[in-house]
User: What shape does this take?
Amino acid sequence: MELAPLKIRMHLVPFFFTESKGNAIIMGNRKVKAVVFSPFVSSMGKLIKLFLEQVQAPMDFESLNLVLEITPNDPDKYKGAVYKKNKAGNCLLRLPEHINNDINDIFEDMFRMAFVNYIDGCVDNNTDSVIVYAIDKWIEKYDLLEVGYCNDTLRRLYYREKEKGCLSRFQNKKSNTILNT
Assistant: This one.
């Protein structure tokens, strides 16, 4: 079975960098944040642990760290990967590609649910708010223009997700990327 590093989709990096608690540092022109997922406490940590057990991978770690990097003026501006932390240090978590995709799909679902709830909150709590303006603020907050997202794409996503219902993603369909319509 071929294993690959668990890397996070590029457009998810600024979202999780902003919304996750963790230690952030500046290294030169890079911002780096480590977000700890306990395999015994956090939902994501437990889920990844289950995937590891499924493929009978060694459980030689104390925690899982989602390491997120933002490097301005770099073609690969956003990077994210999951590392195993043990007594010897950190090493990339490697899993079969289909499991990497499943984990990214869960991160994608979190992003989409937060997006829909954010837009709903803007519309529900501000009679002057319009969906276009709220989506522009979301794009600006998570620097999504940098990774190819625009208001029109996210507006279509919003209406599609609203039509299905907020939790339907957990019931029926795993995510593809937003740019796929």
About this structure: The chain has a mean pLDDT of 88. The radius of gyration is 17 Å.
